[in-house]
Design goal:
binds magnesium ion; ATP-binding; kinase; histidine kinase; single chain; Sensor_HK_TwoCompSys; 10 helices; disordered N terminus; about 350 residues; HATPase_dom; binds adenosine-5'-diphosphate; Heat Shock Protein 90; five-stranded mixed beta sheet; alpha+beta; about 65% helix
């Protein structure tokens, strides 16, 4: 962002030189061609060589060499001048707004500077807009999750509790042959109530608000191990800096999606989850020893990237086939309290 304002404030100083890309290219081609023709003409004028009419056979090689030299010089100069266009096209093809900061540096090719600057500024703008749109969408998604979690807990949870109490009262007064059956129904309702509470907890990480990140990550790991049967080694630095609510939520959701992916895809035998503070940054890592090979990024991984971008963090995913998967989120200090 600051890049962009810098570039914009450069504007007035650069203004007298600024040409549209078409003008800049025209000028460059005109200058190069003019230069080559001038040198060719000077060489012709100053050298003792003459051309007869009609051309003598002995003069043909001289003319051919002269022409070849002019064409070659022209081609060399034009190629060097137009090279940045290839770099620009390559950047257009590879650019991914979820991996921010990929920019073209102007290698002193004066006339194309304006084109490169304009393109870089467009990327800045698109990245900022993309980031704002994801922030909005993610906030809406979190809001919706909270609403569903509340309704599950307060409405369905309450109704099931009432049903459970009614069943208990009925079972107490029922004849022996019916009591057994009512107990079975009671157990089924109790299991459903537990499931509803679990779903509500996954939707809204209440522990995050109530007990903080450490306990939330610990509950997440235990839930994961209980469901998947894969043990998690957890290492959370005791002296972590105070983090903003947004950063904590991003950390929690990325750990949650990574563990879900391990359970669904990895066939792992163990998982390591660590959150450590290093020099100037905070790192979350989720490593498994499963089958690896996560090459196709689906909605889950793209969602993680969007969340990372939201807090100015960098997400990398290493997943060699057969070599397990390593998800790493690095949050620079400046973003921690954002
Ligand atoms: N820990 C992992 N181990 C092996 N493969 C993985 C792992 N995480 C993700 N993948 C692969 O990457 C793909 C994309 O993951 P993701 O974007 O989360 O989408 P989804 O989980 O909905 O399939 C998965 O379909 C899976 O093939
Ligand atoms: Mg997934």
């Amino acid at each position: 962002m600051s890049d962009r304002t810098d570039r914009q404030s450069d504007g007035p100083r650069a203004a007298p030189r600024a040409r549209t890309p078409a003008q800049a290219l025209f000028r460059r081609l005109f200058v190069i061609n003019g230069l080559v023709f001038t040198v060719g003409t000077l060489v012709l004028a100053l050298s003792p060589a003459t051309v007869s009419s009609p051309v003598l056979l002995a003069e043909v090689p001289v003319l051919t060499v002269g022409l070849a030299l002019i064409v070659a010089a022209n081609a060399l100069l034009l190629r060097a001048s137009l090279a940045p266009l290839d770099a620009l096209a390559a950047l257009m093809q590879r650019v991914d707004l979820l991996r921010s900061g990929d920019r073209l540096t102007d290698s002193g090719n004066g006339d194309l500077t304006h084109l490169i600057d304009t393109f870089n500024a467009m990327l800045d703008r698109l990245e900022a807009e993309r980031s704002a749109a994801s922030a909005y969408a993610l906030a809406a998604q979190e809001g919706e999750r909270q609403r569903i979690a509340r309704e599950l807990h307060d409405e369905i949870g309450q109704s099931l509790t009432v049903v459970l109490l009614g069943l208990k009262r009925a079972a107490d007064r029922a004849p022996d042959d019916l009591r057994e059956e009512l107990h079975t129904v009671q157990e089924t309702v109790r299991a459903s109530l537990d499931e509803v509470r679990q779903v509500a907890r996954r939707l809204r990480p209440g522990v995050l608000e109530d007990l903080g990140l450490q306990s939330a990550l610990s509950a997440l790991s235990s839930d994961f191990s209980a469901v998947s049967g894969v043990p998690v080694t957890r290492r959370v630095d005791p002296g972590l800096p105070a983090l903003s609510g947004d950063v904590e939520l991003v950390l929690y959701r990325i750990a949650q999606e990574s563990l879900t992916n391990v359970a669904r895809h990895a066939h792992a035998t163990r998982v390591e989850l660590s959150l450590t503070a290093g020099a100037g940054h905070l790192t979350l890592r989720i490593t498994d020893d499963g089958r690896g090979g996560a090459l196709q990024e689906g909605a889950g991984i793209r969602g993680m990237r969007e969340r990372a971008l939201l807090i100015g963090a960098r997400l990398t995913l290493a997943s060699a086939p057969g070599g397990g998967t390593d998800v790493r989120l690095v949050i620079p200090d400046a973003a921690e309290r954002s």
